[in-house]
Write a structure and sequence with these properties.
alpha+beta, five-stranded antiparallel beta sheet, transmembrane, membrane, transmembrane helix
């Protein structure tokens, strides 16, 4: 008897080991996503620098900003950090941090550019929002500022929303308001309006500028909660349905048995647990595919693209003018009754598309779209309804800085009224530029074209999280199916 029992001294307890592995995998996945998505930091310069650089790199070129912390200030439980960059002496930026469950700070919004005083809108509620006014090494001539709004669009009368004295060159002020700042008025110590000395409609194109937002921490934390709860539930299922311990010798003998399709089919038919496993796998596969298709649902046809653009923007009666593929993305040039522009579609694993970035203009325009980010890295020049007079264009750096040589980034001839030209980005220190349009004789006719418009992300952050959600659901479903598959046939054991 002792000899027969000796082979059971070492047992292979599959379900309990699997339960422990699932919990460890869930925590590892949460930790990885936490570091990758939230860029946590402590309130120290080195940590904040690393967090800010990584946060902005999610949307901009990786080496675009090398932040140098100027000031930190906690207001209403949130941390605001102003920064500059040694490579760009006139750059001024601010990042809003929120405190996480572990008391670390997480960046949720950043604003940066070339301006003496700026405002960042954040913390949007139903009727109110916060405006963060900040300055870095503010010019000593500026003693006071006022936020100006126009309350009635039909009346040009301006109203002062708020104002404050500037007592230090570096400052961060926060206001809760119902309205949005339209512009600033700046005054010297004697009360003279000196706004025109600082806001004159020009800017230095070599200074990076932009706004980056994560949409807050709520989406991330919801995903962590789903992963943790799903992991615990499936781990509990494995732990509670632990089969009879199997010796290592029996496991080796089982492995030697060849599984043919007919044997597997027979096992599914005769074993209720394996039948459940097959049903769970089929259900999870179908659900994951349907859910993924709900996110990536646009066909690369004109009609489907037009409907998708209308749903994603406020464009009316969209007409697709041209499409071009680049690195898995579909670039769609369109015009409509109220605007024209470019929409970038991302291709999914099901070969369907979903819009996630856009730029819009009026009619008869030529403009450059700077898509500099980890997800794509290119500059796109587009034109809609171009007049035959427009023969060529140039994208030039430092157009407003007359003391520097005007560097030509890109140039090309215009052969069609509607076109899309794609370029690799120009990457010296500062690669932002302005576009100039010329006729066949080389005369500058830029003023005849509209190249001012809006743009931004449509749903890139949420699309990323939704894709991860599909992956998590599929993996957890596979684990659950596997748990049923390895569960022994209790009825058969009882009969034996």
């Amino acid at each position: 008897m002792a000899k027969n029992n000796s082979k059971y001294k070492k047992v292979f307890n599959k379900n309990k080991l699997t339960a422990i592995a699932i919990i460890l995998i869930a925590f590892a996945a949460i930790f990885y996503l936490y570091i990758d998505l939230e860029k946590p930091a402590v309130n120290q310069p080195d940590s904040l620098n690393y967090s800010i650089s990584g946060f902005i790199s999610e949307y901009m070129q990786e080496d675009l900003i090398h932040p140098k912390i100027v000031q930190t200030q906690i207001i209403d439980g949130e941390l605001y950090v102003t920064f500059t960059d040694e490579r760009y002496p006139n750059l001024a930026g601010i990042v809003q941090f929120q405190r996480g469950w572990n008391l670390l700070w997480h960046p949720v919004k950043a604003d940066f550019g070339d301006w003496p005083i700026s405002v960042m809108n954040t913390n949007f509620n139903e009727d109110m929002h916060s405006e963060i006014v900040y300055g870095i090494q503010t010019d000593s001539r500026i003693a006071y500022y006022e936020s100006i709004v126009t309350l009635n669009e039909n009346e040009p009368e301006e109203t002062v929303l708020y104002g404050e004295n500037i007592t230090a060159p570096n400052f961060i002020h926060k206001y809760e308001t119902e309205y949005y700042t339209f512009k600033f008025h700046l005054y010297d110590v004697e009360g003279n309006n000196i706004t025109a000395d600082f806001f004159n409609g020009t800017y230095n194109d070599s200074i990076p500028r932009g706004t980056v937002s994560s949409g807050g921490l709520g989406n991330y934390r919801s995903m962590y909660t789903v992963i943790l709860l799903a992991g615990l539930i499936i781990a509990w299922f494995f732990w509670a349905n632990d089969p009879r311990p199997i010796s290592w010798q029996e496991k080796k003998e089982t492995k030697r048995e060849k599984k043919t399709f007919s044997k597997i089919k027979k096992e599914i038919t005769e074993n209720p647990a394996k039948k459940k496993a097959a049903m769970v796998f089929a259900a999870v596969l179908i659900f994951s595919v349907l859910l993924y298709t709900a996110f990536y649902s646009t066909l690369p046809t004109s009609n489907s693209l037009e409907r998708s653009i209308e749903r994603s923007t406020d464009a009316v009666n969209v007409t697709v003018l041209e499409t071009k593929k680049d690195n898995g993305d579909l670039l769609v040039l369109f015009k409509s009754d109220n605007k024209s522009g470019l929409v970038t579609f991302k291709q999914g694993l099901n070969f369907l598309y979903q819009p996630y970035a856009y730029s819009t203009n009026g009619d008869n325009y030529i403009t450059a779209h700077y898509q500099i980010a980890d997800i794509y890295n290119r500059v796109i020049v587009t034109g809609v309804d171009c007049d035959p007079e427009a023969a060529s264009y140039k994208v030039i750096q430092n157009y407003y800085d007359t003391e520097k040589e005007q560097i030509i980034h890109y140039q090309n001839k215009i052969h069609e009224p509607d076109f899309i030209d794609i370029y690799e980005p120009y990457k010296p220190a500062g690669y932002w530029g302005v576009i100039r349009i010329y006729d066949a004789d080389g005369n500058d006719i830029t003023k005849d074209y509209s190249n001012d418009g809006g743009g931004g992300w449509l749903n890139y952050s949420s699309l990323y999280l939704k894709t991860k959600l599909c992956q998590v659901i599929f993996v957890l479903g596979l684990l659950l199916a596997w748990g049923y598959w390895i569960t022994p046939d209790r009825k058969k054991e009882d009969e034996d």
